[in-house]
User: Which sequence fits this backbone?
């Protein structure tokens, strides 16, 4: 089985650099339809579904391999090697920002830059760190997910999306959540919400754009500020947006921030 089928890889556009878009929990590559097409005239754009999500090959999902984010990071590096050309910029939403970080750590120098949208290295509060959730909150969330995944999805997707005044986006995210195979979604949720990638992000030398919503239930502003403080080559951009998916609900603001980050970066590399 090839990567094209395993991860439903789609390539569009033309350019000397490649943008690889990696979606978050409960999502699929269609979530990038509001943002990715804006770059296809200038970049090679690679879209894919995480194994077990979207139209990926569900038979390729191995519980042991994907018991940590490392399995997804190895997949991402395989996709980069097979489909990317020139310098590679990873655009990762939510947990995929950490998958991208791990991919970078596994193959230093292969990733030229990151765009992290709503990233969080740890969702659970710890001493001196605000993740946004207490351990009991996450335990309750996972218990509810285990007992009633479809009910949880229908209730939580609109909350995660936010985007008041754009109900169609909540419907789109809910449909994506509900379409995900429940057992795979339950495992991925546990891997996502119990992970702690603070040591992986601290000191990462690669240039990073942190795109943070001003009002985000999943990744509060304190998390974005923390990442900016520990990523030595980072740019922090607060987007005026309610919800965890600004690439869908505020795509123009995200595109403008990406351009402001990428154009000088590309010019510096060319110089």
Assistant:
């Amino acid at each position: 089985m090839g990567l094209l089928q395993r991860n439903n890889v789609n390539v569009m556009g033309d350019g000397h650099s490649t943008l690889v878009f990696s979606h978050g929990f409960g999502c699929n590559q269609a979530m990038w339809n509001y943002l990715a097409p804006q770059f296809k005239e200038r970049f090679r754009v690679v879209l894919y579904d995480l194994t077990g999500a979207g139209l990926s090959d569900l038979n390729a999902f191995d519980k042991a391999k994907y018991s940590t984010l490392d399995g997804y990071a190895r997949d991402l590096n395989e996709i980069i090697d097979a489909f990317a050309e020139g310098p590679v910029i990873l655009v990762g939403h939510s947990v995929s920002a950490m998958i991208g970080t791990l991919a970078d750590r596994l193959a230093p120098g292969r990733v030229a830059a990151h765009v992290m949208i709503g990233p969080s290295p740890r969702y659970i509060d710890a001493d001196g760190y605000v993740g946004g959730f207490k351990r009991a909150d996450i335990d309750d969330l996972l218990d509810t997910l285990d007992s009633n995944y479809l009910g949880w999805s229908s209730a939580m997707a609109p909350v995660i999306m936010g985007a008041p005044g754009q109900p169609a986006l909540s419907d789109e995210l809910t449909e994506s959540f509900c379409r995900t195979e429940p057992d795979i979604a339950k495992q991925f949720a546990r891997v996502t919400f119990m992970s702690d990638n603070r040591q992986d992000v601290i000191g990462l030398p690669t240039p990073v754009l942190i795109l943070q919503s001003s009002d985000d239930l999943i990744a509060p502003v304190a998390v974005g500020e923390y990442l900016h403080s520990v990523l030595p080559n980072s740019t922090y951009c607060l987007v005026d947006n309610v919800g965890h998916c600004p690439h869908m609900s505020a795509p123009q603001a995200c595109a403008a921030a990406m351009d402001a980050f990428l154009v000088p970066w590309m010019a510096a590399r060319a110089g």
User: Anything to note?
Assistant: The first helix runs from residue 3 to 6.
